[in-house]
Amino acid sequence: MQCVILAAGEGSRMRPLTTSRPKVMLPLAGKPMLEHLIQNVRDAGITEILLVVGYHEEAIRTWFGDGAAFDVLIQYVVQRKQLGTADALRSVEPFIHDTFLMLNGDMILERSDLEKIISLPCPVMATSTTTHPESFGVVTVEGETITSLEEKSLRPKSNIINAGAYLFDAGIFSILKKIAPSSRGEYELTDALTDYIRDRTLKAYPLSVWMDVGYPWDMLTANEHLLLDLTGEKAGTIEENVIVKGQLILGKGSVIKSGTYIEGPCIIGENTVVGPNAYLRPGTTIGNNCHIGHAVEIKNSIIFDDTKIPHYNYIGDSVIGSRCNFGAGTKIANLRHDHGPVKVGGMSTGRKKFGAVIGDDVLFGINCSINTGSSIGSGTKVAPHTLVTGTIANNTVVR
C-alpha cells in the first residue's frame, strides 16, 4: 500500500510562521509536524510515500530526502499552483498502484488509527468530533455509512467532521476528472466524494485522536499532546546544581548551566545553552543553537532554532520563530485581566493563557512589553521600552 500526503500549501492561517517555510515543517515536540505523520505512517506498515509539495518545497526535500533516513521511500510530486485538494490528488495518479491512504499533512494522528483504517475496504473517510463544527466539513452518519457532507455550514447538522484522512483505490481518479471548480476557484476533494455518498459506499472511521493544526495556538495544543509520552534522553551536558524534574530530552552539544531548574516534559535541541539560573516549565520545546540565559523563565512555549532569549525575560504560552533576539527585560504577557479567552487578530484562541506569535528574525530592544494575543511579523524591529500589541506586519519598525 502507498500513502499520499498533501504538503503543498503555505498555511496562510499560520502567518507569520510560514513566511519562509511550509506549514508542514513547523516544529512540534522537536520535529517538523510532517515527520510525526510520516513516522506513524511507517509504523502502521506503509513505507512508500508520495509527498505532494509546492510552497517552499525545498525545505521538505532537504529535510526528508529520499526517505532512507526515516526507513521509507519518498517520491515528490509538485503542485505548482495550489488549486485545491482534488487538484493535488490528481497530480499523483501516474504513481498510484492500487489502494492508498491519503492524508492532509497538517494534523496529528495515532498509528493505531492508521492501522485500522488501512485494514478496511475502501472508500473510507476518517471522522472526528468537535465543539465548533462550523469550521470544518460536517458529516452525518447512519451506522458506519456517511450520508451527507457539507463544508463549513453556519447551521451544522452534527458535530461529526471530516478529519482529512481517507482510504481510496484508483477508482477515485475517474471521479476527480468530472468535478468543476468550486466558488473559490479550487477543485475540492469533498466534491468528488458526492458520488460515493450518493451510492452509500463511503464509510466513516471515527478517530481516537485527531488534532488539526490550523492556527499557531493549535501548535501548543499539539505540542502538549506529543510531550505526554516523552521518554527522557540526555545527550548534552548538565552542570552541577541543576534540578530536573520530569522528562527531559537534551540534545547533543547542549549545556544546562548551574542554578537552572527544569520541570518536564521539556525538549532542548542540539548546541543550545540554557542558564545559568534559568527556569523552564512544562510543555517547553527549544530548538537547536538557541541561548536561554540568566534569569529567563519559559513556560509551555515553542522556540524555533537559532533564537536568543538571554537576560531577564519571561515567555509564556507563545510560539517564537527562528533567529529572534530578545533584549534584556523583554517579556510576553499571557493572561487577560478578565481571564477571558485570548484573541489574536480578532479570532479567539480558545485558550485562557496565550502569549504571542512571533515570526522569524524579530529583534527586540531592552525592556519591551508584548501584550497577550500579539502577532509580530517576520523581520520586525522593536525599539527599547516599547509596548507591542495587536497584529504587526512583516518588516515593520515599531517605536
UniProtKB/TrEMBL annotation:
UniProt keyword annotations, A-Z: Acyltransferase, Multifunctional enzyme, Nucleotidyltransferase, Transferase
Boundaries of every Nucleotidyl transferase domain copy: 4-226
Keyword Nucleotidyltransferase (UniProt): yes
Matches recorded under CDD domains: LbH_G1P_TT_C_like, NTP_transferase
Domain of life: Archaea
Uppermost EC category: transferase
Family recorded in the similarity comment: In the N-terminal section; belongs to the N-acetylglucosamine-1-phosphate uridyltransferase family.
Protein name as it appears in the record: Bifunctional protein GlmU
Lineage, highest ranks first: Archaea, Methanobacteriati, Methanobacteriota, Stenosarchaea group, Methanomicrobia
